[in-house]
Amino acid sequence: MGTELKNKVIITAALTGAVTKKELNEAIPLTPHDIAEDAYACWKAGASVVHLHMRDEDGNGTMDRERFAETIKLLRAHEDCDVVICATSSGTTTYKANEDARMEHFKTIPEIELGSYDAGSMNFGGAFLFDNNPQFLDKLGKTYLDYNVKPEIEIFDMGMLSNVEYHLKQGTLVGPQYYQLVLGVTGGMKATVENLVYLYNHLPAGSTWSAFGIGTGHMPIMYATLALGGNIRVGLEDNVYYSKGVKATNVMLVERAVRAVDVFGKEVATSSEAREILGLKQLER
Questions:
Q1: What value does the CA radius of gyration of the chain take, rounded to a whole number of Å?
Q2: What is the pairing mode between strands 122-124 and 128-130?
Q3: Where are the domains of the chain?
Q4: Which contiguous run of DSSP H or E holds residue 226?
Q5: E strands along 125-227, which residues?
Q6: What are the residues whose beta carbons fall under 8 Å from the beta carbon of 211, sequence distance 6 or more?
Q7: What keywords does the record list, in alphabetical order (predicted)?
């Protein structure tokens, strides 16, 4: 990464998630059309990357390949938009999707550039087992290698970093990696600055990384991440409120992140710059 990019910050907009109900915030986009339009609006507001989940007709998380394809087609129909597309590999309400279904869209939709790689199993939210067993992670890593998708390695606790080390040694992951530190999910590490610093201090040298906090952890983790030199993620997947009692929109959260980056004395990365930072091919239109 060139010195001219050292001061750049990637903002990822995580628009939808798989779990949060629209009853909590009517701005959560559910249909392919609404997700695509929200993604476009977030890119115009300053997001370099959009993190995509899909919902079915009932508003539940789904890994339906056709919904990913339709959303991405609608998004790319905006000819001025070069946003980096990241797709989940774990987007059902109960995280129990068939393992093949969790990977099919990466094999058939070449526009997907980044894919989530949740680096271990956990009791997610005190509600269900989030199953990312070693055999699945092997298959997912190989799929990403075969189809030129860069893993966005999501780390919910310290043990997941050792899982990544194992899969690097097995060759199903190759460095340097891009880490997304996820703090505040019940079953993982709490969203405290101390926990963020602990994970940051244990990242492999030369790693590119980003972080976010769930709910009320959003603001402290965002500012601490900027202080540590990381990239940031915002969006209704992680936080449905702008402030106490005030519901957010994805664009509101992106706009606040842009202001935070500016006040901090850094610059928001364009999507082209984000690709250079992450080692992705530039978009050909």
A1: 17
A2: antiparallel
A3: 3-278
A4: helix 218-228
A5: 128-130, 150-155, 178-183, 208-213
A6: 180, 181, 182, 183, 196, 199, 200, 221, 224, 225, 230, 231, 232, 233
A7: Metal-binding, Transferase, Zinc
Is residue 285 within 8 Å of residue 63, measured between CB atoms? no
Whether a cis peptide bond, with omega within 30° of 0, leads into 176 is: yes
Beta-carbon contacts of 270 under 8 Å, excluding residues fewer than 6 positions away, are 48
Tokens of 124: 């997610």
Could you read off the pLDDT tens digit of each residue along the chain, which spans 285 residues? Answer: 556 898 999 999 999 998 888 999 999 999 999 999 999 999 999 999 999 999 999 999 999 999 999 999 999 999 999 999 999 998 775 545 688 999 999 999 999 999 999 999 999 877 778 899 999 999 999 999 999 999 999 999 999 999 999 999 999 999 789 999 999 999 999 999 999 999 999 999 889 999 999 999 999 999 999 999 999 999 999 999 999 999 999 999 999 999 999 999 999 999 999 999 999 999 987
Sequence-separated (6 or more) residues with CB below 8 Å from residue 6 = none
Task: Identify the bridge partners of residue 150 per DSSP, sorted by sequence position.
Answer: 114
Secondary structure letter of residue 55 according to DSSP: E
pTM summary value: 0.95
Q: Which CATH superfamily is domain 3-278 in?
A: Aldolase class I (3.20.20.70)
- Report the distance separating Cα 68 and Cα 52, nearest Å: 8
Q: Tokens for 231, please give them.
A: 């990239």
Q: How far apart are CA 148 and CA 232, in angstroms?
A: 24
Residue 262 CA to residue 256 CA, distance in Å, equals 10
Residue 71 and residue 206: Cα distance in Å, rounded? 34
Give the residue from 113, 49, 143, 87 showing the smallest Cα distance to 284. Answer: 113
Pairing of strands 150-155, 128-130: unpaired
